[in-house]
Amino acid sequence: MTTERDTRSGLQARLTGPVRAVWAKHDWDSDGWLPLWRHMEDSAAVAGLLWDTWLPASVRELVGSALPDGQRDGRRLAVWLAGVHDIGKATPAFACQVDPLADRMRDQGLAMRSAKAIGPDRRLAPHALAGQVLLGEWLQKRHGWTVKQTGQVTVVVGGHHGVPPEHGQIAALYKHGHLLRTPGPGERVWRRVQGELLDACADEYGVRDRLAVWGSVRLPQTVQVLLTSLVIVADWIASNADLFPYFPQDAARSSEDRVAAAWRGLDLPAPWQPAEPAEDAQQLIASRFGLPEGAKARPVQEAAVELARSMGEPGLMVIEAPMGEGKTEAALAVAEIFAARSGAGGVFFALPTMATGNAMFPRLLEWIRRLPSAQGAEQTVLLAHSKSALNEDFAELMRDSGQRIAAVDLDAPDAPRWRPSDTTHAAPAELVAHAWLRGRKKAMLASFVAGTIDQLLFAGLKSRHLAMRHLAAAGKVVVIDEAHAYDTYMSVYLDRVLAWLGAYRVPVVVLSATLPAGRRRELVEAYAGRDGGGAEAAFDAVGGATAYPLLSAVGHGGPPVMRQPEASGRGTDVVLERIDDGIDLLVGRLADELDGGGCALVVRNTVKRVLETAKALRDRFGDKHVTVAHSCFIDVDRAAKDADLLKRFGPPGTARGRPAGPHIVVASQVAEQSLDVDFDLLVTDLCPVDLLLQRMGRLHRHARGEAQRDRPERLRRARCLVTGVDWEAEVPMPVRGSVAVYGAHALLRSAAALLPHFEQEQAGSRPVRLPDDISPLVQAAYADGPDGPAGWSDVMTEARARYERHRADQAERAAVFRLGKVGAAGRPLFGWVAAGVGDADDTRAGRAQVRDSRESLEVVVVQRRADGSLATVPWLAPDRHGNPLAGLDLPRDQPPPARAARAAASCGLRLPIQFSYADVMDRAIAELEELYVPAWQVKESHWLSGQLILALDEDCQTHLAGFSLSYSESDGLEVTRV
């Protein structure tokens, strides 16, 4: 098929005869092909370049620490394993797949039956598993390794397609030796070819003399994972035909020229390489976050920086401090120090929701721009969630990158055309700021990432290509925000992830304003890798500390230490008052409170209560005096709502248009997190006390004049009215919706903790003092002992029993797919993700794997005109360049224009829980299938491909699965049963 040059070098020069006919890659369209030796050489070269220029120093150090010659051995081992990773393609089971190439090999004495003749047995010998077996045989027969010694190395080859083999698969292949070598006269040729390739790689990559030494090494499982992931990355790059063209097109070029051209074309940026900042804590905070002249770092920020510098080695730091105290800035300052000291090459900032991720992304970008180490250097940045491409800041980064590299996964099967009933199809892959990092399996490898906590929890979920998620985390500093927001189910995964991060020596910063002491201890112990043993008193102290603010730190395998910085001195006394539940009562009370003007926030625990309350308030105050915010808005409207709230109710000096007269924002839990908004009065449904404190953080958040004199006179004292409860009952009875969301136990514990602070005709009551009372209230609500008046005892005991059963059930269900503990050094990763979930990604099922939630339906909302044509919804505002987005045609016979398709995709909506029950979901999918548009299921329509389409009529209404749906820009989605 091609004439090879007489001048040969590298791996090719070590090979003669039949071995050079063995093929590795083939393209059916062009009939191009690639010899196995060439792909092995390409992969090894790429692995060397990745090690030298792309892999963070912390990863190189961890791999090198397990080997006698340190990082030199680490590089040799990585390059050699990348070179031999596809040795399993030198087998009849693989080579028989393409007849012309198989015939060429047969002509050289490599006998093999046809793929049809071999039959289904071929599935027993995927080339990764075959390669693991062949490499193991070679190490045992040629180099005297034992079976026990080989597994820790050969598993890298066996797992290079994302799933390390299981023991049963290995045993099954040994019983089918004909899949590795055809019996008869050709068997000797197959053995010679396989041995020649492995011998050549050992010599070419300088490991022959090292193998005897490595045979006594016990590789930690963390190192096995990192080597596997590095080989995967090298293979993916070397399999990209745009970078490494096939023969005969590229047959004449030398290996050096071929690799150099590919690496230039890839242009993969180096990792972040910060120097440890020389500034003191005050200067560091001021320079990185643009503090105005005269402003100072807060005590918590200063203490966090000093603690980070005092630790023997970077580890875990838990920062507990009040809302608005600058925890985010403290975390990023610590991350810079930790990265410089550990060799980490980036930062992953994990947040509870997409909305909080979107809010963090521009702050992360601004911090990166101020980093001295990032100036003049290209850094890869990612917003990591399924709708990141719709974020304008991220989209601008992608457009500015200007790269057009097509990354391919040649070993992935062609995906069938998607149908709405398909639960395993992933949403379109996230775009990232470097084109090669576009794929969902590679995106987290970017240096700087802001994303949802799910992306981190997936590292604890047994799933395909899990090693890639571990590589992405292993080279970064990880920041986990809002740590109190994760329930038992999520915490099972988080604790296991922390155990692995500790083993990788990954620095971690955990942030919370309201963390229970018991949970603090669990986080610290998980990272330390402590299963009993010494330092008991130190861990007891962590679990019993009541100081606030509080910093806790620990290194992997070491004892914890704590620091108790002062609060900033900013404080608020919040007067608590109980009011009975009732719409009319609430409306009347707000009319009295806002008689002289002012802005109130009403937080309800369910969307239904939000909408009912807003309707009643509008009847009394008028539409323009009431704003609604909850989770059931289309994405673009939800983002606009957040921006509007920040614009009108944000900090003094930045907010514009704060209403002078009475105004009420009625919101669900979306008001709890990451919104720097400030209200004169708070009304809230009873909720768990840590969340109630978060809601209080939106009350008198900023000073408005001396002693709050810029607020209406009767609202100058911070007051919080707690409702959603029958307070007249012998034991308070929260409303049904609140119990469904939070459970009776958490609500009653919250009420009991708050009892001393309720002002209503109670002698000795006192306000909630923020921040002083935050920790005592949280610890009281989450303590193990009994709480509340004696008359509540029976009800609370029953509620606690239900709560404990629910927690045990959550933990048991989460453990099913949870990754195992870090195994002993030298123990191979065989079966590492056995009985896993397959791919962990943005499918309807995938998103529910690490959260204790039902599968949910997400739709793209469009409008169906009277003539049956489809268009984007009519109220969309123009984009930032002034281009109209409302009412754009969405043709059904071809992919819509890019602007119209993106505008439609920005109208994603997650349907409420009514549609998460199996029978309703099945019916809804069947009805949505009626609007299946084949022309949109093509690669040219990436915005809408694989999306469920919900069409509203011209009155913005429709019916679905027995429910009536109505949508408005002001109130979002309203669902009623027909």
Summarize the SSE layout with pairings:
Blueprint: E1 23-26, E2 33-35, H1 36-54, H2 57-65, H3 70-84, H4 92-95, H5 99-106, H6 115-118, H7 127-143, H8 147-158, H9 167-174, H10 185-204, H11 211-214, H12 221-238, H13 255-266, H14 281-289, H15 299-310, E3 316-320, H16 327-342, E4 347-351, H17 354-370, E5 381-384, H18 392-401, E6 448-452, H19 453-457, H20 466-474, E7 477-480, H21 488-503, E8 508-512, H22 517-528, H23 536-544, E9 550-554, E10 561-563, E11 572-578, H24 583-593, E12 599-603, H25 607-621, E13 626-629, H26 635-649, E14 663-667, E15 681-685, H27 689-696, E16 719-723, E17 725-726, E18 733-734, H28 736-742, H29 744-754, E19 768-770, H30 774-782, H31 793-815, H32 844-847, E20 858-864, E21 870-871, H33 898-905, E22 908-910, H34 918-928, E23 948-952, E24 957-960, E25 963-968, E26 972-977
What is the 3D form? globular
Number of helices: 34
Content-based structural category: alpha/beta
Record the strand order, biggest sheet. Answer: 5-6-4-7-8-3-9-10
Beta-strand level of the residues, as a percent range?
A: 5-15%
Distance between the termini: 68 Å
Low-confidence stretches: 1-7, 397-415, 423-436
Q: Output the radius of gyration.
A: 30 Å
Count of DSSP E strands? 26
Please state the average pLDDT score: 88
Largest sheet: 8 strands, mixed
Describe this structure in words.
This protein is of the alpha/beta class. It is built from 34 helices and 26 strands. The strands form 6 sheets. It has an 8-stranded mixed sheet, with helices on both faces. Strands 13-14-12-15-16-11-19 form a 7-stranded mixed sheet, sandwiched between helices. Strands 20, 21, 22 and 23 form a 4-stranded mixed sheet that branches. Strand 13, helix 26 and strand 14 form a beta-alpha-beta unit. The relative contact order is 0.08.
